[in-house]
Amino acid sequence: MTVVSMTNSGVGGAGLDATDRRILAALDEDPRMTVLALAQRTGLARGTIHARLERYRTGAALRPHSTRVTPAALGYGLAASVAVELDQHQLDQAIAGLQAIPQVIEVFAPAGQTDLLCRVVARDPEDLYRVSEEIRLCPGILRTSTSMFLRTVIPYRVAPLLAEDL
């Protein structure tokens, strides 16, 4: 099982210098930018760009390319969160069960009463019910609570974070 810490993720906030932030800000604007274009945009040598990109790939500075595909484009226009209460002795089995459900696109371990918080997608309300039931039936899961998202008010973004220290 791979767990990514939100406070220490390899090439984390403390490990990013101004050069990293310039490169990542340029990539955030245009993820398809070539090494040459990145070098020209940032005023850095291509060798520096190559080395930094390799460090980002092996660290946790860049998300997988599949996160650029919107679930709505695949027919999953409904999004929700499913709060999960589980038997703590079966955490690994519950996580394995959740990983097997394609519509579970992200899972967090929050502080508080909720043990796990799942971000899920579905085709319609009936499909959301099915996904919620599939989650509830995973080993170790005792109960769930589902909240449907009506719309995205602020989409996922990191540009303000990258600009913060520039």
From TrEMBL:
GO terms for molecular function: sequence-specific DNA binding. InterPro entries: AsnC-type_HTH_dom (IPR000485), Dimeric_a/b-barrel (IPR011008), Tscrpt_reg_AsnC-like (IPR019888), Tscrpt_reg_AsnC/Lrp_C (IPR019887), WH-like_DNA-bd_sf (IPR036388), WH_DNA-bd_sf (IPR036390). Transmembrane segments: none annotated. GO terms for cellular component: cytosol. Keywords: DNA-binding, Transcription, Transcription regulation. GO terms for biological process: response to amino acid. Pfam families: AsnC_trans_reg (PF01037), HTH_AsnC-type (PF13404). Residues 16-55 form the HTH asnC-type domain. This is AsnC family transcriptional regulator. It comes from Kocuria turfanensis. The gene is asnC.
